[in-house]
């Protein structure tokens, strides 16, 4: 009787505890957790105004008969009559580029079921994932990955870095191998079958259905978790057991989703890893982009060595920031510093300009409030230690662009800077400031 009155979160906590204490445990009974309580929780967590998939059903529309809809969904799930719909593919403008970015939109019920699966899988895999995997995990962020990188390069004997880029990772995941990996921990055949159905659901574009033989579900909330499982087995565990354990010098891999950098003390070990990594990834249907995969000197002595040989010190990009060798303000200590990647900076400025152009007829108050929100969002991510100059530059370009477009709305030249200054007092824009401290704590 006791298990029947337990809430789903309590059951998931028990599963997490079991997964943590017994690393060889295969879970055979999980599908019963895909119940009304779990799906209602997932429904509550959905964004209210998210775009609808191929069935045109929004959260608002689904909520009208929520109880009946969830009962019906649970019934179909437990009869194994539930079949995921193809993901609607649309294209949205890519700021600063003529190309467009593909976007996948699952149906509302598919979002619900995927969210339920994520909660169940996360309870198990959060106990397995390694500490240096940061992407799309609870209570972890890009800033945590950047902080880990700072502490490593500044405090450990790091002299070489391998920067890697996997070509079209999310599109090239081998689905059969992914299911094999999941089977290490999950032996509930209904859970595995449901995941397979999502993998095979395909996409719908211009009314045409395209099957998906490789890759993870586009736009689905389950996709990042499946990607983490795939890279946990193909990369993280392999690095820990086959590379790091055999290194005589320091070695550390820091990964955010499919974006990762690897720090080494010894050049020969960095070279070995780079070659072995390319061979390893090929075994799992993945390959690196040669032009974006590099091994280079980096760290405390890289700058002086580069100067001595007349070369420019290497820099590298990771999670939207260009990292470079530098010194502390007093010049006494080595520091790795970072600034916004120039391409990202330009794209963000162009993106704001395009937004303003498309929305120039909005009331001034609305334009000012949205501009302030865009700046706050930019500062929240890019407002990291050492990046003040890029922040100030971004704020300057946004302000100049705003003044220029407001000036165009009336007779040319009639909108003075004095009038604009008064407007800024009425609707102040946030000041650029550092919001995230990435300074290494152990000096």
Question: How would you describe this structure in keywords?
Answer:
443 residues; alpha+beta; 4-stranded mixed beta sheet; 11 strands; 48% helix
Order of helices and strands: HHHHHEEHHEHHHEEHEEHEHEEEHHHH
Helix content: 40-55%
Straight-line N-to-C gap: 55 Å
Give me the number of helical elements: 17
Molecular structure report:
The chain has helices spanning 2-5, 8-21, 36-45, 59-63, 66-78, 108-125, 142-155, 169-172, 175-183, 189-200, 223-243, 267-282, 302-308, 342-358, 364-382, 388-408, 417-426, and strands spanning 87-93, 100-105, 160-165, 203-205, 208-210, 251-256, 259-264, 294-297, 316-318, 321-327, 334-340. β10 (321-327) and β11 form a beta hairpin. 30% of the residues are buried. The strands form 3 sheets. The protein has a 4-stranded mixed β-sheet with strand order 2-1-4-5, with no helix packed on it. α2 (8-21) runs parallel beside α6 (108-125) and α14 (342-358) runs parallel beside α16. It is an alpha+beta fold and 443 residues long.
Brief account:
With 443 residues, the chain is of the alpha+beta class. Helix content is 48%, strand content 13%. It has 17 helices and eleven strands.
Protein topology:
Blueprint: H1 2-5, H2 8-21, H3 36-45, H4 59-63, H5 66-78, E1 87-93, E2 100-105, H6 108-125, H7 142-155, E3 160-165, H8 169-172, H9 175-183, H10 189-200, E4 203-205, E5 208-210, H11 223-243, E6 251-256, E7 259-264, H12 267-282, E8 294-297, H13 302-308, E9 316-318, E10 321-327, E11 334-340, H14 342-358, H15 364-382, H16 388-408, H17 417-426
Parallel strand pairs: 1-4
Antiparallel strand pairs: 1-2, 3-7, 3-8, 4-5, 6-7, 9-10, 10-11
Helix pairs in contact: 2-6, 3-6, 9-10, 9-11, 14-16, 15-16
